[in-house]
């Protein structure tokens, strides 16, 4: 059963978004598109010198996908806030699953609102991001 923002209740889950695997090519393309050319994300020689095993995904790449959980479901015009916290790196070749769950329904200035808990996890279950979205339910 598909829920809508107007009918969503606390505990309802939003459609899941999965992306990946996060390839080196995708990281290079994202670096070019975003302007974030930090070598930690694209230069294997650099990360080896830094004592790491491999490059890892840009945090904002995963954050964008996490935000899509709310906007694909409710529409970008209903999004009133998005906050996230990075909790672990997203390794190269990982597949990321982004999920959302309604945790609160409340009124703000006379408008019905939803608070949605968001999480992103990689294949092995490691949570890489957590956050919340505020969505208008009107």
Describe this structure in words.
This protein is of the alpha+beta class and 138 residues long. The chain has one domain (17-136): Hotdog Thioesterase (Thiol Ester Dehydrase, Chain A), CATH 3.10.129. It is elongated, with a radius of gyration of 17 Å. It is 24% helix and 33% strand. The two termini are 20 Å apart. A 5-stranded antiparallel sheet has the order 1-3-4-5-2. The protein contains 3 helices and 5 strands.
Secondary structure layout:
Blueprint lengths: L16 E3 L4 H11 L9 H6 L9 H16 L4 E8 L9 E13 L2 E12 L4 E10 L2
Antiparallel strand pairs: 1-3, 2-5, 3-4, 4-5
**DSSP strand tally:** 5
- Report the end-to-end length measured between terminal Cα atoms: 20 Å
Count every helix, treating DSSP H or I runs of 4 or more residues as helices.
3
Instruction: Name the shape in a single word.
Output: elongated
Q: What class would the helix/strand composition place it in? A: alpha+beta
Whole-number total of structural domains: 1
CATH superfamily: Hotdog Thioesterase
CATH class identity: Alpha Beta
The biggest sheet, with number of strands, parallel, antiparallel or mixed sense and barrel status, is: 5 strands, antiparallel
Secondary-structure arrangement, i.e. CATH architecture: Roll
Low-confidence stretches: none
What level of helicity do the residues show? 10-25%
Report the CATH topology name: Thiol Ester Dehydrase, Chain A
Mean pLDDT: 95
What portion of the residues fall into strands of 2 or more residues? 25-35%
**Subunit arrangement of the protein:** single chain
Question: Could you give the order of strands across the largest sheet?
Answer: 1-3-4-5-2
Order of helices and strands: EHHHEEEE
Radius of gyration: 17 Å
Domain MaoC-like: 20-111
Pfam family, one: MaoC_dehydratas
GO molecular function, one term: fatty acid synthase activity
InterPro entries: Fatty_acid_synthase, HotDog_dom_sf, MaoC-like_dom
